[in-house]
Design goal:
heterodimer, A: 408 residues, alpha/beta, D-Maltodextrin-Binding Protein, domain 2, 8-stranded mixed sheet, two-stranded antiparallel sheet, 17 helices, 10 strands, B: 293 residues, MetI-like fold, 13 helices, 2 strands
Chain lengths: 408, 293
């Protein structure tokens, strides 16, 4: 008897597998903090309304696409979720997003409320593969205290006078560096791999960019080289711009200006200094800011597509987008222009939001990429490591990069 | 007869006790290994179904300049780590192999980085090596335009030093115990015969610890080929691919570009490289190792 119990115990130990309470819908997101709490609240409300149980699954942004791809590959895809801008072309090309073009005919959803430009990333011909919930142009955050100490006019004042351009941006950064000892300006994010956030606006404003209209590499064009030249001067000659890898952040109070999405204001709640938001400077080719997007999409390998589309309609409805707008600039025009939205954040007055954000949307651009973007992005990250070195031969480096990118 | 039955029953129970480990080994090590070899013959972007492509991935590897670059990086990284680690470990072990008051404190100090979590270790170095961080500014005061981790020329060397500082304690302790196993009479006899300290070290001590030296060499080589975490945390393979070792290239292909078939081909190359090196080293053992039972 004793000898029979051992194998039995072993077997039951090995077979032990839990079956947790199954959800009707699985919603995948990288949200955190209050934004996540709101999504969970919305999921609960949807459950109460329809009887459909929605489980919200969270993966940090850095691992998000990786986790999603592994889930899809192992037949464990969520039904619906957030999709980041960088992944949209790849996910559409591999047929992993469901076609939502039927929403165009749904009067209650009112797809016309979304600006055409805000849907460009998600459309292929007549097909629609996602609905953006965030349409966020980069704005300039500036430290009012440092501007005052350096005796400079605020960017908003210079903007009103029509003088807010990259020349004056560079001058302001240098003055802050020289008179206060703090860093002048940072264009890119702390993580050098996230170079696209910030740098693109500078490239576009001087007539350059990553790709031209025919999707050929444009990083070695005259406009791009001019933009890189400006940044190299600020990094190595003026020393007013932190180099890639430096961890000086705007919320620490030792940085005069910083490009980021308006949602960054959430991290400045406890800032020990006065700050404001302004439009980005103007370059030789205009004032082109970068539009960051993220959207809701239904996964074609999910198990419950019809219900997932209903949940998507609920999340992206006018009423609920007005609620998520607290964290993400809404692509629905009716919400964007409502006074409720403009007055939602006491730290950013409605007038500043209008100037820095809404008035810039007309010239804002989304980075259009193709299915090779993940590889191209890696290549470009590598070559930018070389470009942002003192005395770098920028033209030669970027010629080589473009040759490789075009050859992918 | 009865004892025969008992022996069989004991053997069966022994097997049952070993079964969880064997199953784990089978499911989590051997099957994936075979699966990787199979996957390396497919085109699989993880987002769609795999398709059989024969040896196309290997043909692509042969043409891939980045792959060639990462082979070079891996070779430099491995040789650098082995040379530096073994030299420093042997040196430290010889220095620590004395009877002095407080020597235990020094031994603990050398060993302490080994027990530190690797990510914490890497993050501390990342902080110290910021462009305007303490180490780079210190070097800048000496007139060098140093940005150790973000300059393609210095990044790999910096990683080698960081990795060796982390791991050298373990090899030092192993060498120390080997050195303490060398009988003092033999060294004393050599000295009486007029041998210089270097001759004693070279002809008595080193041959006596050669089995340990060989084992440590083997383990360090294989370990260096498998280093991933500090590279990923500190440089992510950059700047400009300067620290993309084979294992980092494999991870990037698989989990950044979702090219699972191609990543599996790199994994297969790495696997056979380690296998080949191990076989080669076992052959060399006969020529290099003395006093082995």
């Amino acid at each position: 008897m004793r000898h029979r119990t051992l194998p039995a115990a072993l077997t039951s130990f090995l077979i032990l597998g839990g079956s947790a309470g199954a959800a009707d819908l699985r919603f995948s997101t990288w949200a955190g903090g209050d934004g996540l709490a709101l999504l969970q609240q919305l999921a609960q409300e949807y459950g109460a309304k329809t009887g459909t149980n929605v489980k919200v699954e969270v993966t940090p942004f850095a691992d998000y696409s990786r986790k999603l791809a592994v889930q899809i590959a192992s037949g464990d895809a969520p039904d619906i979720g957030w999709v980041a801008e960088r992944d949209v072309p790849t996910f559409i090309a591999s047929n992993n997003l469901a076609n939502l073009s039927a929403l165009g005919k749904d009067a209650s959803f009112n797809l016309n409320d979304f600006a055409t430009s805000s849907l460009a990333l998600w459309k292929r011909g007549a097909n629609l593969y996602g609905i953006p919930f965030s349409n966020s142009p980069l704005v300039l955050f500036y430290n009012k205290d440092l501007f005052k100490q350096a005796g400079l006019a605020d960017p908003t004042v210079q903007y009103a006078k029509g003088q807010w351009n990259y020349t004056n941006f560079q001058k302001a950064a240098l003055a802050i560096k020289q008179k206060t000892g703090s860093s002048g300006a940072r264009v890119m994010r702390l993580d050098p791999k996230a170079w696209a956030g910030g740098l693109l606006a500078v490239l576009w404003s001087s007539g350059g960019g990553v790709y031209d209209k025919n999707m050929k590499c444009n990083l070695n064009s005259a406009g791009s080289l001019q933009a890189f030249g400006l940044m190299q001067n600020m990094m190595f000659k003026d020393q007013s711009m932190p180099r890639p890898g430096d961890q000086t952040s705007f919320d620490g109070g030792k940085l005069g200006m910083y490009f980021d999405n308006i949602s960054y204001a959430g991290q400045l709640k406890d800032a020990g200094f006065k700050w404001g938001v302004a439009p980005l400077p103007k370059g030789s080719a205009g004032r082109v800011t970068q539009l960051g997007q993220a959207g809701y999409a239904v996964f074609s390998k999910g198990k419950n597509q019809a219900e997932a589309v209903n949940f998507l309609k609920f999340l992206a409805s006018k009423e609920n987008m007005a609620r998520t707008a607290k964290f993400f600039p809404p692509p629905r025009q009716s919400v964007l222009k409502s006074s409720a939205y403009l007055n939602a954040n006491p730290a950013v007055p409605a007038s500043a939001l209008k100037t820095a954000l809404i008035s810039q949307l007309g010239q804002a651009r989304v980075l259009q990429t193709d299915t090779n973007w993940l590889k191209a992005n890696d290549l470009i990250t590598g070559s930018l490591d070389q470009v942002f070195q003192p005395g770098a031969n920028t033209k030669a480096i970027l010629d080589r990069t473009c040759q490789t990118v075009d050859g992918l | 007869m009865a004892s025969h039955l008992l022996a069989r029953r004991e053997a069966r129970e022994g097997f049952l006790f070993a079964l969880p480990y064997l199953l784990g080994m089978l499911v989590f090590v051997l099957l994936p290994l075979v699966a990787v070899l199979g996957m390396s013959l497919t085109g699989w972007s993880l987002l769609d179904a795999p398709t059989f492509k024969g040896f196309a991935n290997y043909a692509k590897l042969a043409r891939d300049l980045e792959f060639r670059g990462s082979l070079g990086v891996t070779a430099i990284f491995t040789v650098g780590i082995v040379a530096l680690n073994l030299t420093v470990a042997l040196l430290l072990a010889s220095l620590l192999n004395v009877r002095l008051a407080g020597i235990a404190a020094f031994r603990s100090m050398v060993f302490s980085p080994v027990v530190m979590p690797i990510v914490a270790w890497s993050l501390i170095w990342k902080f110290l090596l910021q462009p305007q961080g303490p180490l780079n500014t210190g070097l800048q005061h000496l007139g060098l335009d140093a940005n150790l981790l973000l300059n393609p020329k210095t990044a790999l060397g910096t990683l080698i030093v960081i990795e060796v500082l982390k791991a050298v304690g373990l090899n030092t302790v192993i060498f120390l115990s080997a050195l303490q196993g060398v009988p003092p009479e033999q060294r004393e006899a050599a000295r009486l015969d007029g041998a210089s300290p270097w001759q004693v070290y070279r002809h008595i001590t080193l041959p006596m610890i050669s089995p340990t030296l060989f084992l440590v060499f083997l383990v360090t080589v294989i370990g260096a080929l498998k280093v991933f975490t500090p590279i990923w945390v500190l440089t992510g393979g950059g700047p400009a691919g300067a620290t993309t070792t084979l294992i980092v290239a494999m991870f990037k292909q698989g989990f950044t570009f979702f090219e699972f078939g191609y990543a599996s081909a790199i994994a297969a190359v790495l696997f056979f490289a380690v296998l080949l090196l191990t076989l080669l080293q076992w052959r060399l053992r006969k020529a290099l190792v003395f006093y082995e039972d």
